[in-house]
Amino acid sequence: MTIVVGIPACARHINERPRHLTPARYADALIGGSGALPVMIPPMGEPQLALLDRIDGLLVPGSPSNVHPSHYGDDESLTPDRHDLARDATTLPLIRAAVARGLPVLAICRGIQELNVALGGTLHQNIHDRPGRRDHRGEKGPLDVAYGPKHIVTVTGAVSRIVGADRILVNSVHSQAIDRPGDGLVVDAIAEDGTIEAVSAPNAPGFVLGLQWHPEWRYAEHPDRIAIFHAFGEACRVFRRSLKQAA
User: Fold this and answer.
1) FRET label pair with 51: which of 29, 45, 104, 166, CA 20 to 30 Å apart?
2) Model's pTM, two decimal places?
3) Residues tagged active-site
4) How far apart are CA 40 and CA 51, in angstroms?
């Protein structure tokens, strides 16, 4: 059974030309880890909700941009040059609609922040400025350094069941982080400094998992990362079968 997973894209200007893009590694991980056919969803706002009728899962990827604080009740942006309003206008309604209909959702890095905000939660704009918190931004240098192992997280709930462990070593490339979890979300992973690293929605009608780290990075080299994409793929297949049975 071929499953189709949508990946919302970012809106960028490159050489003064508007582009829609997202890193290729997410599609690679979906193909190799989930057995899914990835399709990119351009950030064109609420009209993209119609695409939810054509896909079996939604992977909300990371990005250098931050969710605009106006979406979670904060008047002032601490990173005014790092926003993507077109993506916000697309992903937030997509996530809410996907969760409501039971469409599997895997949200990574910026994605977990969007998931949290879409469900009514709030964010720390710069977690490294909070007392007692470490700097969760990536190391400077080549990508293998920036996305290399950074710290341990303690995992529970859905994440623990998926990876078969209660502690895993993860990478860390983010400045925003969850403050108050959104409605229906429970915390499934915490860093040693107390930063929320994963959430799930156990009472939602379908698979919902948000991860602050990047399991797509060199996913095939790490059993816990492969397990995450395998679990997401299986959830998409279950969703696809349920639609066929209901037809």
Assistant:
1) 29
2) 0.97
3) 109, 214, 216
4) 11
